[in-house]
Amino acid sequence: MMSDLSRERRIGTRYPLNLPVRVEWDDETVGRHVLVEGETQNVGPDSALVHLRQLPQVGSRVRLAVIEQKGPRFEALAEVLRLERDPAQPLAALRLLSSEKEWRTLIAKWMEQQRQRSAEEETD
């Protein structure tokens, strides 16, 4: 039996960042294309933990898009590493397979924006 430490393969820091996302994939078990909107719970240098109402299969490839009112802000191919099937909050752990450098740049920008908003709220 593997211990929790031996299964833990995270590289890099996780940042609590809630971003609206769209995840889509071809579900071969039912033979249809699936598109689900959700929100990140946290993000890392090449990963995201995403809350989705419907979950893809572990090992499948999905298209991840961070969405804004104006349309997609970021898009990348990702692989589903693991799932948390909690009915109250189903989560998919995704590892980016493309656009990692752009992802890291955007995470830094989003985190800075979050810090600025927090600082403004503290001064109000």
Please render the helix and strand layout as text.
Layout: H1 4-7, E1 20-27, E2 32-44, E3 47-52, E4 61-68, E5 71-84, E6 91-96, H2 100-123
Antiparallel strand pairs: 1-2, 1-4, 2-3, 3-6, 4-5, 5-6
Key attributes of the depicted protein:
124 residues; alpha+beta; Thrombin, subunit H; 6-stranded antiparallel beta barrel; 6 strands; 44% strand; globular
Q: What do we call the CATH topology?
A: Thrombin, subunit H
Q: What is the average per-residue confidence, as pLDDT, rounded to a whole number? A: 87
- By DSSP, the count of extended strands is 6
Strand residue content = 35-45%
Overall structural class, as computed from helix and strand content, comes to alpha+beta
The CATH architecture classification is Beta Barrel
Level of helix content?
Answer: 10-25%
Q: Which strand order do you get reading across the main beta sheet?
A: 1-2-3-6-5-4
N→C terminal distance: 52 Å
At the fourth level of CATH, the homologous superfamily is predicted glycosyltransferase like domains
Order of helices and strands: HEEEEEEH
Task: Describe the global form.
Answer: globular
The total number of structural domains is 1
The first-level CATH class name = Mainly Beta
Radius of gyration: 15 Å
